[in-house]
Amino acid sequence: MLTLSPAPAPTNKLTNGDFEGTGGWTIKTTAPGALTYSFDNTAEFHGGLRSASVAYSAGSAAYQAWYNQPVTLEAGKKYNFSGWTKASTANPGCSVSYYIGTATGSQNLKTLAIITSANLRPSWSASSGFYVAASTDAYTFNVRMTCSGAAARTYYMDDLVLIAEA
Which of 78, 82, 86, 100 is spaced 20 to 30 A from 165 at the CA atom? Predict the structure, then answer.
């Protein structure tokens, strides 16, 4: 009798994309007193018990919050992204972008998903996208918030997944 084993589940290319562990993420922009990053937020979460959050202080000028991590992708493979995003208030004045960048993160190669201020709500919303790697190389997966205005607000990200299509 022949027994078939199920194919192994695809591996998330993102380290700590569910924010339940530690590590993986590097803060790229700071603004002391204006931006507060947390990669183990326990107040709001989609799955598990933690999420990432970026809080903007009241009275802050317009800032871009940005964090990322390196990923190695293989030429010609399609990578599917999915994730969840939430804001502390509706129409908070910021957009949230998820994108694949160059190894330094300095260039956006493809925006996987962008959630505009008008679409951000105080409830979790799903986003998705894909990227086909042009070469086997080092890339970055980036999360960037672009904000205007001076109101206090917090953004939450959780269950970020980047997997190669079988």
Answer: 86
Q: How many CB atoms lie within 10 A of CB 78?
A: 13
CATH of the domain at 61: 2.60.120.260
pTM of the predicted model as reported, rounded to 2 decimal places = 0.91
Indicate the burial class of 136 (C-beta count within 10 angstroms; 0-12, 13-18, 19 or more). exposed
- Count of Cβ atoms closer than 10 Å to residue 14 Cβ: 18
In a domain, 121, yes or no: yes
Residue 116 C-beta-side C-alpha neighbours within 13 Å? 2
pLDDT digits (tens, 9 = 90+) for 70-128: 999 999 999 999 999 999 988 788 899 999 999 988 899 999 999 998 888 999 999 99
Q: Tell me whether residue 3 is in a domain.
A: no
Domain of 117, in residue numbers? 26-164
Which positions ≥6 away from 37 have C-beta within 8 Å? 27, 52, 53, 54, 65, 67
**Could you identify the residue written with the tokens 């809080």?**
55
Task: Please report which confidence band the pLDDT of residue 60 belongs to, taking 50, 70 and 90 as the band edges.
Answer: low
Residue 111: beta bridge partners?
99
